[in-house]
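FAQ
Q: What does a multi-component entry look like?
A: The components come first, one per line:
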Amino acid sequence: MTTAAPPGQARPARPARSPWAIVAFLGFAAFTWWAASDEFGIGFDVARVITNLTRGADILAEFFPPNWEYLPRTFGPMLETFQMAVIASVIGCGVALPVSFLASRVTTPNLVTYLVNRSLLNLIRALPDLLYALIFVAAVGVGPLPGILALVLFNVGVTAKLLSETVDGVDPGPIEAANAAGATRTQVVRWSVLPQVLPNYVAYSLYVFELNIRASAVLGIVGAGGIGNLINTERRFFRYDNLMVILIEIFVFVFVIELISIWLRRKLV
Amino acid sequence: MIRFENASVTYPGGVEALKDVTLEIPDGQMVVIVGLSGAGKSTLIRAINGLVPLTGGDVVVDGVSVREAKPKELRELRSTIGMIFQTFNLVRRTSVLNNVLMGRLHGAGTLRSLVGAYRAEDIEIAMQSLERVGIVEKAYVRASNLSGGQQQRVGIARALAQQPKIILADEPVASLDPPTSHVVMRDLQRINRDLGITTIINLHFLDLAKVYGERIVGMRAGELVYDGTGAQADEHVFRDIYGRSLTADDVMGDPSERPATIAG
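Then the predicted structure of the entire assembly, as tokens:
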């Protein structure tokens, strides 16, 4: 079906394509080549990766079959990992909530407060969690405590970044309405902004919790408690069959958490 | 009483939205502001509660200078002025009651409102406000589950919950269909008459303005170009306000006749 168009309308000529897209693509390609090349970069070579991979097959074979008799010994450290993740997520995400509002221009019009908060968050995120763990192990000794402290900092950084960017994008209408009713800034945040970002906040917190379970596998290597300690020990004694049990366990654990968080998110939105 | 004294607003981009406006609105009046979009209607009513800061002159509301009010005084003043918006501005994810309770935030105190422990009397006022607009049965329903007309009535209830002396309505029916528009306009009219609340409404539909405007104020390019009764405002007056001849788009039309053609 066609409709008759009113006459007298001239269609515009298609504008010329901007050369920038091609320039940007070439620049991007050159940059990647620079990073991978033998001359300037790390000498990344796909062919070599494939030949080297077969060498790992011998070690890989040692992962099988997994030694299931080892499983009961992992329960204690796994529980510790879980408990570390719970504590670090509750504290980290709890701190991140007010910080997020201070790190968005929507809820913090004061430029100085906003910039100070943003910079602090960038600073926290600049260091990886493993480095925090190293620092805290040196400061408070080995065990779950340095692990929790490292995870808390990591959680504040991640959650506050994600949440403050969500706050940037809320519907300003309810904010104007609360302002018009004479609400204070705290009240505006509580009743106009928080309800809008709550599902996101819960989703980010669950995600951070999941990251924490995974991260503690690495943090244990520097002595920060949890399942990571066990991984480190078994790795040192080349007990790859035991290691395989731990890997499967972590996989199942993370998978179950993912399922629960999907279900929770669906309930909330 | 609201008094504009040579009030001017120039936005940071250089747009002069309000030019040297002097206007007096006595208590209890129902005033309709008409004008094309961009004429400065929204700026005019937002100058009354200070949502838009003045760059010249002053607006004095019940003896309080909006321009000189400190943040705390401004919040105090705003708590006596209810506001209704074109797009309702409800928090769609929360209950109707929570939205209406926003109107009680000023009196509730920060700590109480932070945990949502509203006093029984505040909840009672919110419920009564919902009863006045006839949708109290939706109190615990999520705002997003309501129709546009119902959402706007929640918006009116939120303004009423402030127990205001003044109600400002910025294009309250522009997002609604004609029959619902009349329901909402009659709600506003009833509130003005029963409670004696000064009501200032921005409209761009001229027939609505004529029916509901006890007094009509016309604006063009940030300036006041007409001030008179609804009865006096005929087609010539509106043509003058709009600065062009009128079209079918300028009137909403009789809801019973829709979608019949409307004479320009």
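Q: Is there any commentary attached?
A: Sometimes. For this entry: DSSP finds eleven helices and no strands in chain A.
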